[in-house]
Fold each of these.
Amino acid sequence: MAVFFRGSQNLLQKLKNHVSFANVSSRAMASKTPVGFIGLGNMGSHMAKNLLKHGYPVFASDIFPESCKEIQDLGAQVLDSPAEVADRADRIITMLPSSPNVIEVYTGLKGILKKVKKGSLLIDSSTIDPSVSKEMAKEAEKMGAVFMDAPVSGGVGAARSGKLTFMVGGVEEEFTAVQELLTCMGTNVVYCGEVGTGQAAKICNNMLLAISMIGTAETMNLGIRLGLDPKLLSKILNMSSGRCWSSDTYNPVPGVMEGVPSASNYQGGFGTTLMAKDLGLAQDTATNTKTAIPLGSVSHQIYRVMCARGYAQKDFSSVFQFLREEENQ
């Protein structure tokens, strides 16, 4: 009976929270113009929810209909294609996996640019090749719209809590309008320069992230083999000069931290495939600019091998598990 009572209380609390969320959103929505959101994956779904929480009516679309159910239940209107979103909203945010996805969503047969209105503001938070951002900006300009690149950092946790960092590239005069929307989803919104510079900043950040994650995984593995307790080693690292985001916020060793992918068999989070893709972008831009990135190149190869060894869908912190398995072969 006690178990049933506690279960009923939990259900009532969830319903209460949902009703409260709906009431706050519906009151605010009456005074705010709609926002389109395309791409409701691990990151995009939380970002779109935060727009709803801040009172913006949302027109959403995703290639996978099942990804739309939760946000539809929270009050978003789900549409069948990017073109339909563009027909209903003049401010649109896209959050997509790769450059080809962005090209298709913007310029495809049912793409945004088929129905975009003049004066529309198009914000792409995907991580893609800077040259693709520049090309999309040119195509949008032909239709009388403005395209800005605004990739994010912070991971799923920051997307959920509305604490992302946005790196914005594009027409500076439009930054205030972009900032208004992005501050609903993040705590840091930084203007980087012309179109493509947001992507440049993101690629550099993710290259460093990959390098530091591999370094953290190697360090933790060595310490464990030397007989150190992983929680103790993590504590020491995080009060010493080796401290980094991969060690103090996103530790790759199972059992060291709660609420991170390593605590749940590396499910969720930022996939190894996406990290390999971002490192490929870094490698391509480094080649084009004749920039030496020896650690970035090695990191790229490690994540490519991981993708081929069954880690593609796991979080990128699974490099710790990969290194442990390599030792046993």
Amino acid sequence: AVVSTQSTGVFSNIKKMEVVYGALAEGQNSVLSSKTEEESVMQDLFSSVETVQQTFDAVLSWRAQSHQLYESALKPGILTWCDTDEIRTMISAQVHIAMETVLNEVDEDGRYQVLLVSASLVESVLKLYTDLLSRLSPADDKTANLQSEFERRRNALIQPFVELKVYQIAFTLAEQFKHFTLLVQLCEDTKDMVKLRSLSAQHPGFAEVAYNWYLSQGKQSRLLTANVAEPQQLTKFLTSQPHLKWIHQLGSKDYSTAGQTLAQLGEQEKEKLSRKKTLLSISKLSFLADG
């Protein structure tokens, strides 16, 4: 009974934040519609973004600190005010305002602050997704749709930091929210192969995501030479890629197996006689190299 009474009082007070955020959004839309670029107006606009960031940080902090109280007050399937799409969209809008409107109108010190506030907002909105997903049943029809929405928004919110080459923030957010595809891209962009291998060792499934990314980008050579993970992981992945598998086998000096793979490919080749002959010739050379 005590928990129920405390919860009701706290929730009713926090729920009033919807009214505050609604008023702020109206003011922001008015400024954006005016298309003014005056410094004082930009400062006021960013102050409103900071207000959202600071108050929502406080909300999430309270949820984390009062986890037991918070969870005990929720019934299965019940959504809180900050589990709604309206709130997630409103928080996301703050990031777009900061990054697309304010960032280009402030000095260097101002840019640093805008980036920090934006990163905090991105973290907040993505936490809302992961928190809600953790409370939904995998069998719930809403779960798959919410997961897809989370992945789309995760990419849309982190990508601007990549485009601005603010790699530290991009790396931190991408790793925190397991955006493996983007992490591979970031490692390639920054030529940080040590980071790439570290991520592969820390996160199950990361290596396969990396291999598929290289294929999707037409970077077959990097797929074979990047040393993303242990050699046996690459060998397993290449089972479904016979046209690359034999190159890896030759590189590993597994000449006999490479010869067998090439012979199979040669026998399967029906369209180009010249290619068929080449594959079979390399197969014979591989067997000869094996002794």
